[in-house]
Amino acid sequence: MDLIEQLRILRQIYRHENAYYDSEKALHLHRIPADISADELEALGQAGRMPNQMSSPGHDEIWDAMYALADTWTLSQAADAFIAGLWTAPFLWQSALTAKLLSLVTPRHAFTPYQGSADTCIICGFRKKAVDSTLLWYNRMTGGIPLDGDPTGYVFALREMAQSGLKPTPTSYDLWTFRAVLTVIRHMPPKSRYSKVRDSLHREKLLPASQKANVCSLLQI
Ligand SMILES: [Zn+2]
């Protein structure tokens, strides 16, 4: 099953109306809609993209993986992958740059929860919770980068990139797109609000996506 087909089926599964909470397992999961055939599900499984592949990584495990995986990228390679991810490479590769930067600026630290919140680290934003690796992959392929306070999201993105064995480099068109994005931002009136910049970029149709969320994701970088 090719990539496009995998994403098409996952799009049907990860619709809001299929989300539910399994109180017995204490997990947020997704129901498989009845119109997805057994053959399609089997092919998805063979591709390693079955939904509801849950795990609950720990804080130190995530940061050990973050440092080790980000270390396999130079800053220049990560910047190249980010620009390639604007157009010719899947969105997933935009995450390389922010992951690298996060790994460089975040010191090693122990899990330090907020007062009154036992599950969120005040230093890095890590949350103790179960995650679905297929949903994280789907989000990276379709929706852009994780938030900067989501080290778990970055580690899963780095693992996907490592498994692919690719470090994409930008084409001349990717570089043109990057320059065009900067030009739009530069020509905004001073002190323009975030939403105005987003709307202008969306209007120019510089990215291979029709959703404003993709532009938001890019602006967060
Ligand atoms: Zn932390």
Highlighted features:
221 residues; mainly alpha; two-stranded antiparallel ribbon; 51% helix
Structural account:
With 221 residues, this protein is mainly alpha-helical. The chain has three domains: 3-51, no CATH class; 59-164, no CATH class; 172-220. 51% of the residues lie in helices and 5% in strands. The strands form two sheets. It has a two-stranded antiparallel ribbon with strand order 1-2. A two-stranded antiparallel sheet has the order 3-4. The chain is globular and about 55 Å long. The mean pLDDT is 90. The structure holds zinc ion. Zinc ion (ZN) is lined by residues 59, 109, 111, 121, 123-124, 126.
Largest sheet: 2 strands, antiparallel
| Poorly predicted sequence stretches spanning 5 or more consecutive residues | none
Share in β-strands: 5-15%
**Ligands:** zinc ion
| Distance from first to last alpha carbon | 32 Å
Mean pLDDT, to the nearest integer, reads 90
Helix content: 40-55%
Structural category is mainly alpha
The succession of helices and strands, N to C, reads HEEHEHHHEHHHHH
**Which strand order spans the largest sheet, edge to edge or round the barrel?**
1-2
Q: What characteristic shape results from the CA principal axes? A: globular
Number of domain modules? 3
Tell me the radius of gyration: 18 Å
The number of distinct helices, counting runs of at least 4 residues, comes to 10
Brief summary:
The chain has about 220 residues and is mainly alpha-helical. It has helices at about 5-15, 40-45, 60-70, 75-85, 95-105, 135-145, 150-165, 170-185, 195-205, 210-220, and strands at about 20, 25-30, 55, 130.
